[in-house]
């Protein structure tokens, strides 16, 4: 969630109470209320000192067994004993957002680059969710049973996934939701040949890679500065060599001239 969006919610809350929170929810989009770890709308959101928000369960899992707690987005470090408390006001905004009625935009015709609903016949609508159990994507209309039927409610939903068939294990027909760091490949829960390897959930690997990229970006100016300094040193060294060679070339004609002059004087004396 952006800082501006969160500030807008705080203003609405102070001035108008519950009405303000409902109004704030209606102005926000799903992307602004999305946890960057699970890539879904927040559940039990917690705010950490740097100002970023995550699902409590996602952040707890991400920090588990880590020697140092740090923000998955900005890499700011915190004490290992940092207590995660649910931001109750923000949670209410998220819950209000979840109850908002579906708009025509959610069931809009498919446009290039969007994931289609697998259950629409004829003109396809864009998918609003992908089910990792059904291995299919659904528009808001066809997603309705997942919100109503008890058994389907337990299914794991995520944001629409492009090329879902490429993310399914060809051996076990299960979603590739883990990453084997030993062999640098995606695996499913039934890929037992990787059981002794270092495997982590895909979202954890994604967050770690994103954090590493952020660290490299911060170090980039220092690396460029060092490269520039090395270039200048090489340039100066090359210039000195050229200058030294030039002086050496000047000495040769002078030495020849001095030698010839000496021989000429010697001949005159004879």
From TrEMBL:
Region entry Disordered, spans = 217-253
Record-linked InterPro entries: E3_ubiq-ligase_TRIM/RNF, Znf-RING_euk, Znf_B-box, Znf_RING, Znf_RING/FYVE/PHD, Znf_RING_CS
Where is this chain compositionally biased, Basic residues type? Answer: 234-246
Q: Which Gene Ontology MF annotations are present?
A: zinc ion binding
**Domain B box-type stretches:** 164-209
Taking every annotated instance into account, which residue ranges of this chain make up the domain RING-type? 35-75
Q: Which UniProt keywords apply?
A: Metal-binding, Zinc, Zinc-finger
Entry protein name: Tripartite motif-containing protein 47-like
Query: Could you tell me which species this protein originates from?
Result: Pundamilia nyererei
Q: What is the lineage of its organism?
A: Eukaryota, Metazoa, Chordata, Craniata, Vertebrata
